[in-house]
Amino acid sequence: MSDDALTELRQRADRLDAEHVATDRRDAFELPEGVTYLDGNSLGALSLAARDALRDAVDRQWGRQLIRAWNESRWWTAPERVGDRIAELVGAPAGSIVVGDSTTVSLYKAVYAAARLRADDSRRVVLTDPDSFPTDVHVTRGVCDQLGLTLELVHPTEAASRLEGSNDVLLAAYSHVDYRTGELWDLAAITRAAHDAGALACWDLCHSAGVVDVDLAGGGADFAVGCGYKYLSGGPGAPAFLYVAPAHLPRFTNPILGWNGHATPFAMSPEHVPAEGITRARVGTPPVLGIVALEGALTAYDGLSVGDVRARSLSLTGFFLDCLDLLGIDLPVATPREDTRRGSQVSLRHPDAYAVVQALIARGVIGDFREPDIVRLGFAPLYLSHGDVLDAATALREVLVGEEFARPEHRRRDLVT
Amino acid sequence: MSDDALTELRQRADRLDAEHVATDRRDAFELPEGVTYLDGNSLGALSLAARDALRDAVDRQWGRQLIRAWNESRWWTAPERVGDRIAELVGAPAGSIVVGDSTTVSLYKAVYAAARLRADDSRRVVLTDPDSFPTDVHVTRGVCDQLGLTLELVHPTEAASRLEGSNDVLLAAYSHVDYRTGELWDLAAITRAAHDAGALACWDLCHSAGVVDVDLAGGGADFAVGCGYKYLSGGPGAPAFLYVAPAHLPRFTNPILGWNGHATPFAMSPEHVPAEGITRARVGTPPVLGIVALEGALTAYDGLSVGDVRARSLSLTGFFLDCLDLLGIDLPVATPREDTRRGSQVSLRHPDAYAVVQALIARGVIGDFREPDIVRLGFAPLYLSHGDVLDAATALREVLVGEEFARPEHRRRDLVT
Q: I need a surface site. Which of A52, A271, B191, B374 has the fewest CB within 10 A?
């Protein structure tokens, strides 16, 4: 391509960055020099506020308040407090979200509770997406096996027709965004189809929370879970969140009965009396350090509307798609080009996808590989600019044009891909 | 009492501290000036190595290695690696312990797996201690309800006779140390009684790991769980550990099927194939920050034998009991005086126990209250000295003699007691 075309793209990037300056939170994060980080959908970048919150939690709260920090630093109520902050990002009312366990454990609780709410002699089927992140399929199948239910693997595009006119489905458990292709599914439509068939709907928001204007309440979702360490930048292994629609809370049955979900935990009674509200979804002592870090990270959203963040995200991914076209990168794009069907990532297919990702990393552009042939590039909107997007696209062009992916050093697989 | 008696006690404290100098790890912890911390059995004191490990994990690993830290900083294998370090403290072989979820979730997995191993038409009964920490009773009852089993509340002193000659029990699930009284139960004897009756044994080591010379393998325990944030000082809400006897691993059924317990997690297969070994007990993405902090904290045990730590612990609690006698503190002692029956705490009964604890805290001696009438004083051996023990005893004497517990400000209850 000509230098002129590149100059024009650079000018466009600058113009778009100026347009979206209100959602630029780059100063809230630390990223190494020379790195363009397109893996915030796997591990969000270091949040400076998370780091500071963690230091305070360790040095002052743990170190000096000691056991008193449970009251003085409000550790005990942190799962609900941080849940309320996340609720603002995913269109949920206060008191409907709790954080603490992993996504998988949270989903186990959601699917189990849904089944207990709705399973009867005629309703024995749970639908889920065979292309969901595997843990979703595993944990859902596990609950079905435990309760004698049938798991049916139905792609999201077929979910509505499978549900229509049926009366055997009790739950449709879907991911909001396909973790590989980045396709955004219609939460409201699938939820409506489930409800019309008398079923419940459970959503995995791992790849939409914080970047898509999720509307759990408006969409009628019954249950949802989501991850704290991807776009929310809560840190490695950050606690996940669990949403239970308020209408279901009085009959929410937690399969893992622990003291943190008890109505009066410090009465130390051997009888389990579930707490009112979302607290009954808690289990054991919460991972305080992880929750505190997540709470710090969420301050990056202070003063922002998630709608504006979504607009920035779409602008970034849309600009990247344009760059692919204008730079002549003609890899098959697995991600829908329509805004309404796209999460916050762009996935490309390449037969040597793993090596392409490694070659990009060697150029300072960090994305990741997903089986079997996906180059996955996530665009965390709070700390990426349109300039970064252009840098990534030009690096990808170099990798492909120079066939850098063919070098042997880019083919060595690590334990974690 | 006379000044002479106090002087003599002080000399004895100094002599005992000199005798046990090899297990003094006070320098590995930070405690506020003027505080005698007798609540390390609820939240262990700040470990400096945990703090440093966490800083490195945040600033360098998360901040600069970013997603690459899963390989470069060995985050992925941390649950098993830290499990192996804990195994050395509780007499378990390498490859039998994993860390990650909360104690309650870990116990849920253990009880469920035990039931799946052993429940049949004739064995439908699970025994547990009505006086166990409530979460143990709740989660065990929950599994029983799910699987149609019967929970029988049988005190540890009655467990052997309940088991003898029976053939209906599938699991005896007990706590190694009573969290209120500090009584240490005979793990090997109860396990033997369970095995003689064809049942399995599961142990909660929350109040013994790191302070009692637990011998899981020698005692024949089938399953065990324990806490990372008490004597192990992993930090608030630190991940718990789960032990599965190697003989049971091939048939261990995890009720919560997640991608971290999969044989080939990065193949991203929708079929769940359990990993070999203890890895199959993993569930979701592990709480990396919490595990890293715990790994740091465990370095306090480097170069120590747990037998020597146990000897120091018994010396501390034994000296405290002597101080009570010699200082004329005649509260009923809930904790056994025999070394073989005592964990690492001393619990006293007082009708105003809550206020007594608050009055002690006002004097800088931090213990805790447990319903209904327990003043609970934990002696974390690594950072407490016999001098601290004497300070605590003299403070207690002042609180009682001066009736300081009668002051109104000591009766106000906080959320977390």
A: A271
Nearest-CB residue to B138 (from A101, A240, A258): A258
Q: Give the DSSP H or E segment for B349.
A: strand B345-349
Q: What is the β-pairing status of strands B200-204 and B223-226? A: parallel
What is the pLDDT, as a whole number, of residue A1? 58
pLDDT per residue over B67-78, tens digit each? 999 999 999 999
CA nearest A56 in B: which residue? B51
ipTM of the complex in this document = 0.97
Respond yes or no: is residue B133 known to be catalytic: yes
Give the angle B161-B164-B166 at the CA atoms, nearest 5°.
120
Summarize pLDDT for B307-327 with one digit per residue, the tens: 999 999 999 999 999 999 999
φ, ψ for residue B95, nearest 5 deg: 85, 10
How many CB atoms are located within 10 Å of the residue A228 CB? 33
Domains by residue range for chain A, with CATH: 3-46+305-410 (3.90.1150.10), 74-301 (3.40.640.10)
Residues ≥6 apart with Cβ < 8 Å to B281:
B98, B109, B242, B244, B252, B254, B261
* Pick from A246, A222, A215, A300: nearest CA to A40: A300
Does the beta-carbon distance from B54 to A54 stay under 8 Å?
Answer: yes
- Cβ contact B235–A46 (<8 Å): no
- Which residues, in sequence order, are CB contacts of A123 under 8 Å at separation 6+? A167, A168, A169, A170, A198, A199
Instruction: State residue A5's pLDDT score.
Output: 85
At B142, the amino acid letter reads G
- Give first-to-last CA distance, chain A, whole Å: 33
Q: Which two tokens stand for residue B231?
A: 């004597």
Distance CA B217, CA B81 (A): 19
| Assigned token pair, B210 | 């790191």
What does the alpha-carbon distance between residue B181 and residue A306 come to, in Å, rounded to a whole number?
52
